[in-house]
Structures are given as C-alpha cells and as structure tokens.
C-alpha cells in the first residue's frame, strides 16, 4: 500500500515504488524502466531538448500506442499516418523516432521501416495558445507565447530525416482547412494543445475520418485540465461516441474502429 503524508507531500509504501513522477505514484510494473530501446531513445532525446522528460510513463505509453498502430497498419497493408496537434519541442515524435530507429537493429525491422516511411503531420502555433480562441468568460491562465524550445525552424531541422513530413505553423481549427486527404485519416492522432476549443475541433475533424486508429489525448485525465475533459466528453456525448479511457498517467485514449 502507498500512503501520502499530506503534511509534507511524501509517499510511503510497504512495496517498492516503481514510478513516482508526473502525478503518478505506483508500485506496479513499469515496462519503460526495463525496455532497453526506450531507455536508449529517451536518453538520446534528453540531449536534444530543454525539457527533462520526467513524464516517462506518459511517453512510454505513447510509444506503445504508436507501436500498436504501426503494426496494425503494416498488417493491413495500409500506410502509417501520424498526426500531432500541439507539438512543443516534439518530445513524443522525437522519442518515437529514436525508438523505432533502434528497433531496426532487432527482429522488428519491418515495424521500424514502416514507421520511418510513414506520413507525418505536425501542427503547432509555435507561439503558445492562440489568444483569439480564449473566450471572455474563461479565467484560465494560458501561456500565449512560445514554450521553451518550441520553434518552427528547430522542429523542421530536428525531423528533417522524415521524408514525408508536413509542419503547419498555425492554430486549430484554421490549420485544418487546407490539409490534403493524405493527412486526414491518421492511424495515430496525438492531441496536446492545452485548450478545450482547438482540442475539440481537432477531434471533430479527424475522428469521423479515421478508420482503425488510436487517439491519444495528453492532458485528458489531469485535474488541472478539467475544462478540456468536459469539452471532449460533451463532444462525445453529442455524437454518441464512447468517452475516452481515463488513464492514471493523465492521458485519455480513444479507439476508432470504423
């Protein structure tokens, strides 16, 4: 059992704690701690970004979800399409790239190749939250300037190795108005824009177009992002979609099977 001392915020457990960061404390098995490819990938990524990448379980879960969609698309003879709305420094794609590149040295060469030959769409303002989307009655404190390391030129250079890559420096929903059909049906969709309106609009645009894919909402289950969660739930309720899986990592997961 793990207990919290509310006085000093420390945790005490009668079992060995396997992970304690990013709002998650557990004594359960964490594959990311023993996954050699992930350990090496995150070590390489840490040397390239400003962020400490303390959110290892979130990152490992994202990599695992991506791996499932890469494998599924490979088995179905479909192209792999990766879409990310809210890129920042590109933590998720950066760790994923190094992870799949390292897989090329193992028995998973086909999965590695299918990922690296995929189609990638990255959307970000590269200047924080678009202030024009903030409603007058919204008292939330938003970052309306660039996050550290979130720079179009840096991201373009960082992922230049990916041949089929499109980066759009604009806010959602405006950024979605002219994207070609090649990007409209992702196998993997990552949404992390820290604001309810663009997150709902991204979900409303991509979800009806997707066939057999997974959507990962980075902030869905975090208490500090309740406004986003309620907005996403209301959208799902409106159209009769199941609500996202509520994950202890703070994320939310949607499986699209149509």
Main sheet attributes: strand count, strand direction, barrel closure: 7 strands, mixed
If classified by CATH, what would the architecture of the largest domain be?
3-Layer(aba) Sandwich
Give the helix tally.
Answer: 7
Tell me the fraction of residues in β-strands, as a range.
Answer: 15-25%
Distance between the termini: 41 Å
CATH level-1 class of the largest domain: Alpha Beta
CATH superfamily of the largest domain: Vaccinia Virus protein VP39
As for the number of domains, it is: 2
What does this protein structure show overall?
The chain is α/β, with parallel strands linked by helices. It folds into 2 domains: 1-34, no CATH class; 36-256, Rossmann fold. It is built from 7 helices and 11 strands. The chain has helices at 36-46, 56-75, 91-103, 109-116, 152-158, 196-206, 226-239, and strands at residues 2-4, 11-13, 19-21, 24-26, 81-85, 119-124, 164-169, 188-191, 213-217, 245-246, 252-256. The protein has a 7-stranded mixed beta sheet with strand order 7-6-5-8-9-11-10, with helices on both faces. The protein has a two-stranded antiparallel sheet with strand order 1-2. The model has no long low-confidence stretch (mean pLDDT 93).
């Amino acid at each position: 059992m793990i207990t919290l001392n509310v006085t000093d915020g420390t945790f005490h457990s009668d079992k060995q704690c396997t992970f304690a960061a990013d709002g998650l404390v557990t004594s359960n098995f964490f594959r990311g701690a023993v996954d050699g490819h992930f350990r090496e990938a995150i070590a390489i990524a840490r040397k390239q970004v400003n962020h400490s990448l303390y959110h290892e379980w979130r990152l490992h879960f994202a990599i695992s979800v991506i791996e499932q969609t890469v494998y599924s698309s490979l088995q179905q003879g479909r192209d792999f399409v990766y879409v990310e709305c809210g890129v920042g420094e590109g933590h998720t794609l950066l760790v994923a790239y190094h992870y799949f590149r390292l897989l090329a040295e193992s028995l998973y060469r086909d999965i590695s190749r299918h990922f690296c030959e995929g189609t990638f769409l990255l959307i970000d303002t590269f200047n924080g939250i678009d202030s024009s989307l903030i409603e007058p009655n919204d008292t939330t404190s938003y970052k309306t300037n660039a996050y550290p390391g979130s720079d179009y030129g840096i991201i373009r250079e960082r992922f230049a190795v990916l041949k089929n890559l499109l980066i759009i420096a604009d806010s959602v929903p405006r950024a979605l108005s002219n994207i070609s059909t090649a990007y409209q049906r992702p196998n993997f969709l990552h949404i992390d824009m820290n604001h309810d309106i663009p997150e709902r609009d991204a979900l409303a645009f991509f979800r009806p177009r997707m066939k057999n894919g997974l959507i990962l909402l980075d902030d869905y289950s975090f208490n500090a992002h309740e406004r986003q969660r309620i907005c996403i739930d209301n959208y799902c309720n409106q159209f009769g979609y199941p609500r996202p899986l509520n994950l202890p990592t703070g994320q939310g997961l949607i499986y699209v099977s149509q």
